[in-house]
Amino acid sequence: MRVAAPAIFFARREGERCELGPGRMRRDPVRWPSGAVPPSPFVRRGRPAGAQQDTEADPARPGAMGSKQIAQETFDEAVQENITEFEMEPEEAVREAVLQFESQGVDLSNIVKAVRPPASENGQRQKHQILLTLESLARAVAEQDVAQLPQQLLSLAAQCKEQLAFRCLAGRNGAYPAVLSACQLAAGDRELLLQALCTLAALLDGQPDLLDAAGRELLLRSLRERREDAEVTLAGIRCVRHACLKHEHNRQAFVKGGVLPVLTGAITQHGSAAELVRMAASALRVMTFDDDIRVPFGHAHDHAKMIVLENDGLRVLIEAAKAFTDNSGVLSELCATLSRLSVRNEFCQEIVDLGGLNFMVTLLADCMEHPDVVKQVLSAIRAVAGNDDVKDAIVDAGATELIVLAISHHLGNPQICEQGCAALCMLALRKPENCSVIMEGGGALAALQAMKAHPREVAVQKQACMLIRNLVSRSRELCGPILALGAEVLIAEARAAHRDCDDVARAALRDLGCKVELRELWTGQKGSLAQ
After folding, report:
1. Domain ranges of the chain
2. Which Gene3D superfamilies match (predicted)?
3. Which helix (H) or strand (E) holds 302?
């Protein structure tokens, strides 16, 4: 058993390790060697540009603005040091290295947390497996060895799909040029092109910055030339989607290149291919995002208008839904895309005229046991209810009862509670007659139950407060029944617990006739607004 030597402290400059003898504990600031990447004020908040979550609802948030970044080599050296100097087992060495860096606020989301193979006899450092695969692929591309390309592409794609860190390591070491060259070599070989596009999609997932003009041109050309081929089209559209998520420049470049008619055309031409329709609808939806914080503003609204006005997007999506009455995944995606396209009054009305409202109400009734579908349908109803005439059509179709049922049935799901309250809130806005229907259907009670079930969910609390306010703002006779349900206490608790709820909670209490302190934020005199 080793005995730790007496602690010997060495003064170091700020940023260096402070050593405590042979058994030193490295919990103090780590020295940043030449391989380290210093923190940047331009690092995107959240994941690296375009990084996709495993589920869209839940974000992991590595790479926060201002967090420290290190190179893969730096991490590997720390692991190797733990093994050689402290005689740790490989797994323990990795855990210790992770703990060391994370304790210093280092973002390790893009780091492969594995033990690199030991150095060879001649002292040459070994590489991670994905880099060895990448070298084999690059060699096959350079030699135009078409026989070896499929296996190398398949292997690289499989490793890229494992985790974002593998994709980032490959991307930093020249994977994109190699895969793009493979795509170009495969132009006349359908099977090879399909595998190359699948590998490109796996690589671009979470790394849209890799794609350049040549890659965009290749994707658009492949989608046009191979539009009859459902599998190649699906692989190409998946590349487009990954390249446009959290990347405004790629979105605008693809739209200018004519990708919108390609996407709507794919849905129409391959209307029976469930995964292709789902992916194409998702790609259309991504074109309407404004999620790239590196640009001052995006073209989300313009893209939504182009999809509807120039490419008949609403009709395409609603017609596509008729072929998948039993496929909740496709229907959920189609509803999500419809909600993103409901950006103008006339678009909301067109959805109703095309039968989209009846489709959504029927879908909500038939898929009540599928929370993902319920959430997206509620979101779509909320969006189209922005049109006052459509509000009446929604209520006449019996949707209010279904919305209340959805909230009650999925009371433990905060996202459904949020979207349900938001949909009812829109239906009640400026419509006293709808408020009576919502109240009689148990909408206020359902909203208050949601507040009780999710006291820490600010979005649920906020939407419920807004619903209560809309119910009573033009229907004062509803104040008494709502107060009798215990609304005042719940709204006051939401206001106290969540700063973001202060304004809406105060407004709800005021319109309910409760005592509330109204503050004068500015009196016209010099000074800042009251906090």
Report:
1. 1-30, 32-126
2. Leucine-rich Repeat Variant
3. helix 300-305
